[in-house]
Write a structure and sequence with these properties.
Elements lengths: L2 H12 L22 H10 L19 H10 L8 H73 L6 H27 L6 E3 L1 H12 L7 E8 L6 E3 L1 H18 L3 E10 L3 E8 L6 H4 L17 H11 L3 E7 L3 E9 L4 H17 L2
Parallel strand pairs: 2-4
Antiparallel strand pairs: 1-3, 4-5, 5-7, 6-7
Helix pairs in contact: 2-3, 4-5, 6-7, 7-9
């Protein structure tokens, strides 16, 4: 550094030589407010330290006791959140709330996926139904011609004519085709529901009365556990009978005419449940999701429409069908149908809606 620069710095410092940097302090006494017992208890309550067994006096906050900490909070020199046990408890509660929200979100997601699947399936079934109706109408006319001429041909043949067997096969297959076409039309038309008060126990008893004398049921043990207090539902008894008949016949065929068929009915305030359980071989997991698909069947002479029609009938009743199956242990079909609201519940709901409506104006 040159001499000129040094002289310049010294001259600059000389400017502050007489500056007074001293400070004076005055003794001021400031008293902190004395909290009331009610204020102290309120703070202890907020940090969950009011019950004696939770008054830990852990000193993690820097105060000797929880009471001292509460006094400091009231005086404004401490914050109630800075309490380790309190923070841990709050963290635990938040974690539990997050867990609950996560579970609820998972359930909502599953319900949404299920609803989406049902919507897609319903759209597919509607399109397939329209196609099936068109195909059925186109097949009916030539099928009727084949059947008529086959019967005429049968009458013209002698009793010992070897061709009778072939003609009989034509008639049998034409008859089977007619059944398939009728199934197509039933599936496509979605017959209008003729609803009325219905007791599902009575419908099940009617169905069992129809099938019990069939040869396939001779070696099947039917077990019934029908709830005596089952509520009356609003339904089309004839169409429900078709649903139960389809499932019961399928169960008998799955068991090969041997085994146990258990039919159970239960209820809660909003639903009745019908469970039809067999002891057959079960349904392979890879086809379980397809059993309600139209034309899907594992039977040699099945149409694959029985369960699809049953699914549609239950769906139109605002119900659902669930299937549980284990290989070599059997299958269970669970049908859930809604119970109509009581008049008292409807009146309460109507009053509530009226109050809400009035409050909005």
């Amino acid at each position: 550094m040159e001499k000129q620069d040094v002289a310049k710095v010294i001259a600059e410092l000389d400017r502050y030589e007489n500056v007074d940097l001293s400070r004076e302090f005055y003794n001021m006494e400031e008293k902190l407010p004395v909290p009331t017992e009610e204020q102290i208890r309120e703070v202890l309550r907020k940090i969950d330290k009011l019950p004696p067994h939770k008054n830990l006096d852990c000193r993690a906050c820097g105060y000797p006791t929880c009471r001292d900490k509460a006094i400091a909070v009231v005086q404004g020199i401490a914050e109630e959140e800075y309490c380790l046990p309190y923070l841990l408890e709050q963290s635990k509660r938040i974690y539990q709330q997050l867990e609950k929200s996560h579970r609820e979100l998972q359930l909502s997601h599953q319900e949404l996926e299920k609803a989406q699947f049902q919507l897609i399936r319903a759209e597919k079934l509607a399109a397939l139904g329209q196609l099936a109706a068109g195909v059925a109408h186109e097949i009916n006319n030539p099928l009727a011609t084949i059947t008529i001429y086959a019967h005429l041909l049968m009458k013209s043949l002698g009793a010992d004519d070897p061709r009778r067997e072939d003609v009989q096969l034509i008639i049998s297959e034409a008859s089977r085709t007619k059944e398939i076409v009728q199934g197509l039309l039933s599936f496509a038309r979605e017959k209008k529901l003729e609803v009325g008060p219905t007791n599902v126990n009575e419908v099940l008893e009617d169905v069992l009365g129809l099938v019990v004398n069939q040869s396939i049921f001779h070696n099947i043990k039917i077990k019934k556990s029908l709830s005596p207090g089952i509520p009356t539902i609003t339904a089309d008894a004839t169409q429900l009978k078709q649903v139960f008949l389809n499932i019961i016949l399928n169960a008998a065929e799955a068991m090969g005419g041997k085994g146990d068929l258990t039919i159970t009915t239960t209820q809660d305030r909003k639903h009745v449940k019908i469970k039809i359980q067999d002891t057959g071989p079960g349904i392979p997991p890879e086809i379980l999701d397809r059993i309600f698909t139209p034309f899907f069947t594992t039977k040699a002479k099945g149409t694959g429409l029985g369960l699809a029609i049953s699914y549609g009938i239950v769906e139109r009743h605002s119900g659902k069908i669930d299937v549980e199956s284990k290989l070599d242990k059997g299958s269970s079909f669970i049908i859930t149908l809604p119970v109509p609201e009581s008049k008292e519940a409807q009146n309460k709901k109507a009053k509530k809606e009226t109050v809400v409506f009035q409050n909005t104006h």
